[in-house]
Amino acid sequence: MATDNHTTIVDFVLQGFSEDPRLRGLLTALFLFLYLMALAGNGLIVTAVSLSPVLHTPMYFFFTNLAVLDIVCTSTIVPKLLESLVVFADNISYGGCLAQLFFLTWFLGAELLLLTAMAFDRYVAICRPLCYGAIVSWPLCALLASAVWIVSAISTSVHTGLMAQLNFCSPNRIRHFLCEIPTLLLLSCSPTALNSIMIIIADVYFDVVNFLLTSASYGCIVASILRICSAVGKSCAFSTCSSHLLVVTSCYSTVIYTYILRGSGASMENSKLVAVLYTAVSSALNPLIYTLRNKDVKAALRKVTPFSQ
């Protein structure tokens, strides 16, 4: 069937995790738990920050954006995954596949940019505390947050537009449980040189450049913390950025494994597991990482959850 986007395929078949009914039941329970945990945890964070004046600071403003990103990112992937596990609906329409690719790429790119903005915020707070209010102003926060969403949206629009120009021929089976750029390019029977060039450019900007900026920020932070004489002062300074550093480490570990090492046999075999980490597990764990050692957030959560102790 030929359409305006010159494709001969009207749908794709996603490769699931297992055909074993018992294992599918276990996976359904696991992914449903992670999804509900991500929705509840991040939803509570957004509510707590919105309703608590003490949390109306740049750090928690960025944190709220991260929570929203986690909600929409996991909602892009997990519901379709649950559908395939429960009702064996492994097919996804051509338009649905491109839509999933668009939103997944948008939200993952925005998260990398947001982590860089959060690293800058922590750098100013620890290395230049006396100038923090003047440097990290609300207009700057709004500008950074807008740039995070808009720049990533522009990038994913380019990738999705280029993908829509490709011809896809049989077989139409995607060797993954989601639609992403590398797996779709494997099914194309059109030249993909331009797509590959744009992927390299995006990888350099979103992955390499942002990783270097984040690393530079934390290099300065660590150097500043080491110069603090008081052990209590060092502990307080480290506690303000330890949660973010853990999220950054987790995020870039999956990015490096997925994109920089994707050509190796090991990365291809474990690509599904890594995808689960950045689409479901991290979204569920991020609220816990940010709240376990944060007294302000825990206090705000107690106010919005009457049943908590």
Q: Which architecture would the CATH scheme give at its second level?
A: Up-down Bundle
Major sheet size, sense and barrel closure: 3 strands, mixed
Q: Count of DSSP helices? A: 12
End-to-end Cα distance, whole Å, is 60 Å
CATH superfamily: Rhodopsin 7-helix transmembrane proteins
Give the beta-strand count. 3
Using only CA atoms, what is the Rg? 21 Å
The strand line-up of the biggest sheet is 2-1-3
Oligomer: single chain
| CATH fold field value | Rhopdopsin 7-helix transmembrane proteins
Q: Write the H/E string, N to C.
A: EHHEHHHEHHHHHHH
- Give average pLDDT, whole number: 85
| Basic shape | globular
Total individual domains = 1
Percent in strands: under 5%
**Poorly predicted parts:** 1-7, 264-269
Q: What structural category characterises the helix and strand content?
A: mainly alpha
The level 1 CATH classification is Mainly Alpha
Transmembrane segments: 26-48, 60-82, 94-120, 132-156, 177-202, 208-229, 241-261, 273-292
Protein name: Olfactory receptor
Domain G-protein coupled receptors family 1 profile: 41-290
Pfam family, one: 7tm_4
